[in-house]
Specification:
The chain is α+β, with helices and mostly antiparallel strands and 429 residues long. It has two domains: 4-157, no CATH class; 272-429, Histidine kinase-like ATPase, C-terminal domain (Heat Shock Protein 90, 2-Layer Sandwich). Helix content is 66%, strand content 11%. The chain has 13 helices and seven strands. The strands form two sheets. It has a five-stranded mixed β-sheet with strand order 2-4-5-7-6, covered by helices on one side. Strands 1-3 form a two-stranded antiparallel ribbon. The protein is elongated, with a radius of gyration of 34 Å.
């Protein structure tokens, strides 16, 4: 999938750096040719009409070049630049068609300019539908221009006429095919760079998470052993002390669970990045949870967009993210106490920002604004036995892949978590 930014840059380079000098030269020779006053130029149109057409072509190009420049400078949007490039192509087609009858009709050397413009169309508009429409218009206008120049119905019986039309069609097809092959190679190179970029970011996690976990695990074990010794040797007369020692051991076990999660966090550096179908991973996460048996009264509604681009991700990590959010949704519905509820899973593509969107919505207990603002804070939890690290780790993992997660929630009405995952890293974009 080609990024829009790359296509826009290519259009600007082609139109400003290549086409502008060529058109300036074409107009210069057109004015010289029309000014010669030869019979070849005046047998169809008057001299004033010829200059009027050349001036009109010059003015139309000037207008659309100004639009291109302003759209680039003021960031009007990709559509403005693409539209200007489209009309510039049509204008060039019309002007070449105007020159064909004046320069020999079927034998006109201007014919070969059409092949160059078709190559330009392939560069500016890689999508076959847009490219095909423009190039088909080129063929139709060329045929009409030749007929105007020849004024003979027998023209359509000549082999050379059909041969020239076929050549134009073949050039159009070949340009699209060559571009597709080049694009395949470019995408393959980008995929390789993508793997390296993301793997480097994930590897950076091990140093921090691993050092924290291993640095605290051993002292915690020593403290736990000491507390156990005190608990066993404190006499019944010191019941208050024994009770506090018990509390210490419970908190040590809780801390141990937290460190275990951090240890899992450090294992993310062993990620194996692959191209994933995000809808299939969502289904895999649902199957892993077994909602039909564990939560029989809670229903899941899927709203998946088809034909989404592949995502570079570790499958285990992505499934873990989805599973965590889906389990949270189930637990929120159970906490509400109504016995039944609905979870909606949605996937879609944000083409403008080149990101995949996944949302997990539930009809559960919801949260107040103060809780929403703290939900990603480490160790913050509204659950009795929660560690408060689940969503914090999920958020950090998503951000490791240059993604983001947002939440909207209302008390007693439910919550919606929305994940944005880029198709390419920021370095690639």
């Amino acid at each position: 999938m080609e990024t829009k930014n790359r296509q826009i840059r290519r259009i600007l380079i082609v139109e400003k750096m290549i086409m502008m000098p060529i058109k300036a030269a074409l107009l210069f020779f057109s004015f010289l040719f029309f000014g010669s006053g030869s019979q070849d130029t005046t047998h169809l149109f008057s001299k004033s009409f010829l200059f009027y057409q050349a001036g009109l072509y010059l003015m139309a190009n000037a207008i659309f070049f100004v639009v291109l420049t302003w759209a680039q400078a003021r960031k009007w949007g990709d559509l403005s630049i693409k539209t200007a490039a489209f009309f510039l192509s049509i204008i060039d087609n019309l002007y070449l068609s105007f020159l064909i009858p004046l320069t020999g009709g079927l034998e006109s050397p201007i014919y070969w300019f059409y092949t160059g413009l078709m190559i330009r169309n392939a560069i500016n508009f890689p999508k076959i539908r847009v490219q095909g429409i423009i190039n088909l218009a080129f063929c139709i206008f060329y045929a009409g221009a030749v007929y105007v120049g020849e004024r003979e119905t027998e023209l359509f019986l000549q082999e050379i006429f059909y041969l020239r039309i076929i050549v134009l069609l073949l050039v159009s097809i070949c340009c699209w095919g060559i571009y597709a092959l080049i694009q395949q190679r470019v995408l393959k190179d980008e995929e390789e760079r993508e793997f390296h970029l993301r793997r480097e970011k994930i590897h950076a996690i091990r140093r921090l998470a691993g050092e924290i976990a291993h640095g605290l695990k051993n002292p915690l074990t020593i403290i736990n052993n000491a507390a156990y010794y005190l608990e066993k040797h404190v006499t019944d007369e010191l019941s208050d002390v024994k009770q506090h020692v018990t509390i210490i051991r419970e908190e040590i076990h809780r801390s141990d669970r937290i460190l275990s999660q951090i240890m899992d966090y450090s294992k993310w550096s062993n990620a194996k990045l692959t191209k994933l179908n995000i809808n299939q991973v969502l289904d895999s996460a649902i199957h892993e949870i077994h909602p039909e048996t564990t939560f029989p009264n809670i229903h899941i509604k899927k709203q998946y967009q088809k034909d989404l681009p592949f995502l570079f991700f570790d499958e285990g990590h992505l499934r873990q993210i989805f599973s965590n959010l889906i389990i949270n949704a189930f637990e929120a519905i159970q906490e509400k106490g109504e016995g039944q509820g609905l979870i909606t899973l949605t996937s879609s593509l944000d083409e403008e920002n080149e990101t995949l969107l996944v949302s997990v919505s539930d009809t559960g207990v919801g949260m107040d604004l103060p809780d929403v603002n703290k939900i990603y804070d480490p160790f913050f939890t509204t659950k009795e036995k929660g560690t408060g690290l689940g969503l914090s780790i999920v958020k950090n993992l998503i951000e490791t892949y240059d993604g983001s997660v947002e939440v909207e929630s209302k008390k007693e009405r439910g919550s919606t978590f929305t994940i944005r995952l880029p198709i390419a890293t920021k370095n690639q974009r």
